[in-house]
Automatic annotation (TrEMBL), chain A:
This is ABC-type D-xylose/L-arabinose transporter. Belongs to the ABC transporter superfamily. Carbohydrate uptake transporter-1 (CUT1) (TC 3.A.1.1) family. It is a peripheral membrane protein. It is an enzyme of class 7 (translocase). The complex is composed of two ATP-binding proteins (XacJ and XacK), two transmembrane proteins (XacH and XacI) and a solute-binding protein (XacG). Its EC number is 7.5.2.13. It is found in: Cell membrane. The lineage of its organism: Archaea, Methanobacteriati, Methanobacteriota, Stenosarchaea group, Halobacteria. It comes from Haloarcula japonica (strain ATCC 49778 / DSM 6131 / JCM 7785 / NBRC 101032 / NCIMB 13157 / TR-1).
From TrEMBL, chain B:
The keyword Transferase does not apply. InterPro entries: BP-dep_ABC_trans_perm, MetI-like, MetI-like_sf. One of its GO terms (biological process) is transmembrane transport. It is a multi-pass membrane protein. This is Sugar ABC transporter permease protein. The lineage of its organism: Archaea, Methanobacteriati, Methanobacteriota, Stenosarchaea group, Halobacteria. Residues 96-290 form the ABC transmembrane type-1 domain. It is found in: Cell membrane. Belongs to the binding-protein-dependent transport system permease family. MalFG subfamily.
Length: 379, 304
């Protein structure tokens, strides 16, 4: 059982906050991914666990043992760095076996373990090479080999795939996932790539501005985002956000005079939110229904860009009488081209509502049919 | 100011155009390699002739060496000058020994302290860019003064401390003198090391000190070798401090000994060339042995 626990960890650099009130648990054997834009504090959080950065406040426990003030080498962790940090003056085998050498393990055992690890990573034929003779993917494997050879209880990775090309990235991603399953090592992985995070992680820890925004499974953070930041960060292309207000029209669903008006029931809006107060409506590009003739409750828009992508196409559209742009994903057989007029519909269960001020999600509770009208500029 | 530099720029432009024209003319006759090689050869002769003259002089008799007109190549070579030197000056061994001790000691000290200091400057956080620039610059300022300015106060200090005419005194003086060079030669090498290398070493089980010796130092080896050569040459050839801070064979070094061949009445050329050759040999041999690493050391830190 290796369970990692962050107890309200805060790291300050002078007056600047690196990470704030990090309070998370990573369960035994879990693959947790710290996800967020650059500068969000994810690497700081990871480095606190590695012991390369000392938290200003709070503590970290592994299996209930406080390791906050322990030297990195006594934490039983291994790490793969973004730059890989292979030792250039050593060959491949020496690099992989180095942690064992430092530990004082004899040469024969070391060689045995190195060969074992090399076989797992499919790099047996590279053991006698120098590190500068390797390709990006091979270097990656060597770095991972050096990390797993000690059979650490926690495995840390800081954007290890950042320098690989797209195809290799996908390949290595799958291998890392497979390897982690096989070894069952509790893993904390840092990335800014949401696709990487979604495919790798059992749990995503989404961070922004030094704080944790949401912890959940990939499905949870995608389909049930806690706030506007998470909703916008997860998913590609990003969720569309429209600053809108409610149009009180009694119990009827009515299309407002303005053509750029979506009409659907926005359930459970807080009563404190009066009709003039704007809020944010979030809709993923693929959740619009696209019509080529006027439809009840759909907003009129003009197509400005079309990007065919095989089975589907990505449209950039502009709402009528409005300069706000929306990204819309439509099936390939919807025959539209630049400057065509389309009508966009939204269904209530695929739209998200956020507080305009705080960005917090406003959960839908009870049905109250309303019409929303876009107002002001796009947030 | 702009108008002041204008004529200069015109001159340089004209010069450049002239050189290009010469190059084109030579190229049309296919003479470019011949001319460039010729210039290179001229430079080699210019640099190496004094060395040749000294070494060949050590193998010639006095009259042969001083013949008028000078004989560029001698037919009567002899090794007799070498035993003659040690016969006339039995203390030469002691000078040689002092030089070796002072050079090795001061180089070891300068490289050790300089390396540690540079690593600290570059890898630890200092406010206001102190580590990356200002502190190393401060170290370098100690070399801004002409040595003659510092040697007088140093004499007084060494006198008080009982370091006058001791090898230890010279070791300390030379080390202090050479540390700025070591710092500036290694700065680039340390700055190039990614932080993650040291961190990886720490996670692999090293202490910071262990990581420094086992991982960092091997990685900057070309720089260390270049810095070592540089300090060795500086210490081995130093004359001013040695003349002023030492007074007899207890601590006097080879350069001081060499200076004594020139007296008010005569210069013992044939012995001076022997002594000079012996003085030159160790450093030349050392530099020859590590020549590849030396070249990498001098260029690597600077280029990338």
């Amino acid at each position: 059982m290796v369970r990692v626990r962050y107890d309200d960890v805060t790291k300050r650099y002078g007056n600047e906050i690196g990470a704030k009130d990090i309070d998370i648990t990573i369960d035994d054997g879990e693959f947790a991914v710290l996800l967020g834009p650059s500068g969000c504090g994810k690497t700081t959080t990871l480095r606190c666990l590695a012991g390369l950065t000392d938290p200003t406040e709070g503590g970290i426990r592994i299996d209930g043992t406080d390791i906050t003030n322990r030297h990195p080498k006594n934490r039983d962790i291994a790490m793969v760095f973004q730059e890989l940090a292979l030792y250039p003056h050593m060959g491949v085998a020496a690099n992989i076996g180095y942690p064992l050498k430092v530990e004082g393990i004899d040469k024969a055992t070391r060689r045995e373990r190195v060969e074992e690890v090399a076989e797992t990573l499919d790099i047996s034929e590279l053991l006698d090479r120098e590190t500068d003779e390797l390709s990006g993917g091979q270097r990656q494997r060597v770095a991972i080999g050096r990390a797993i050879i000690r059979r650490p209880s926690v495995f840390l990775m800081d954007e290890p795939l950042a320098s690989l090309d797209a195809k290799l990235k996908v390949e290595m991603r799958n291998e890392i996932k497979k390897l982690q399953r096989e070894l069952g090592i509790t893993t904390l992985y840092v990335t800014h790539d949401q696709e990487e995070a979604m495919t790798l992680g059992d749990t995503l820890i989404v961070m922004n501005d030094g704080t944790v925004q949401q912890v959940g499974t990939p499905t949870e953070v995608y389909h049930d985002p806690a706030n506007q930041f998470v909703a916008g960060f997860i998913g590609s292309p990003s969720m569309n956000f429209l600053q809108v207000r409610r149009e009180a029209v009694g119990s009827q669903r009515v299309v407002a005079a303005n053509d750029a008006t979506f009409s659907f029931s926005v359930k459970g809006l807080p009563t404190a939110l009066d009709d003039t107060e704007p809020f944010v409506l979030g809709v993923r590009p693929q959740y619009f229904s696209v019509h080529q003739s006027p439809v009840d409750g759909a907003a009129k828009a003009e197509v400005t860009v079309t990007e065919p992508m095989g089975d589907e196409q990505l449209l950039t559209v502009q709402l009528d009488d409005d300069n706000r742009e929306l990204a819309v994903r439509a099936p390939f057989d919807v025959a539209v081209s630049r400057s065509d007029t389309i009508w966009l519909g939204i269904s209530a269960d695929s739209a998200y509502v956020f507080d305009a001020e705080t960005g917090e999600r406003i959960r839908q509770a009870e049905a109250s049919p309303d019409t929303v009208v876009p107002t002001g500029s796009r947030p | 100011m702009a108008t002041d530099t204008q004529p200069n720029r015109d001159v340089s432009r004209t010069l450049l155009a002239g050189v290009e024209r010469i190059h084109e003319t030579l190229d049309s006759y296919g003479l470019v390699p011949t001319v460039t090689n010729g210039i290179a050869l001229l430079f080699v002769v210019w640099t190496l002739f004094p060395v040749y003259w000294m070494v060949s002089g050590s193998l010639r008799t006095r009259s042969d060496l001083l013949a008028t007109p000078p004989k560029l190549v001698s037919t009567a070579l002899t090794v007799g000058n070498y035993p003659e030197l040690f016969a006339q000056r039995p203390a030469f061994y002691e000078f040689l020994f002092n030089s070796v001790v002072v050079t090795v000691g001061s180089t070891a000290l300068a490289v050790l302290l300089g390396t540690a200091a540079t690593y600290g400057f570059v890898n630890y956080e200092f406010p206001y860019n102190l580590g990356r620039f200002h502190l190393p610059f401060l170290v370098l300022t100690t070399r801004f003064l002409p040595p003659i300015v510092t040697v007088i106060p140093l004499y007084v200090i060494f006198d008080t401390a009982g370091l006058l005419n001791t090898r230890l005194g010279l070791v300390l003086a030379y080390a202090a003198f050479n540390i700025p060079f070591v710092v500036w030669m290694l700065k680039g090498f340390f700055a190039e090391l990614p932080d993650s290398i040291v961190e990886a070493a720490v996670l692999d089980g090293h202490t910071e000190l262990g990581a420094f010796f086992k991982i960092v130092l091997p990685m900057v080896r070309p720089g260390l070798i270049a810095a070592t050569i540089f300090t060795v040459i500086n210490a081995w050839n130093e004359l001013l401090f040695a003349v002023i801070l030492t007074s007899n064979t207890e601590a006097q070094t080879l350069p001081v000994a060499l200076a004594t061949f020139k007296t008010a009445y005569a210069i013992q050329w044939e012995l001076l060339t022997v002594a000079g050759t012996i003085a030159m040999a160790p450093v030349l041999l050392f530099a020859f042995l590590v020549r590849e690493k030396l070249l990498r050391g001098f260029t690597m830190g600077a280029v990338r």
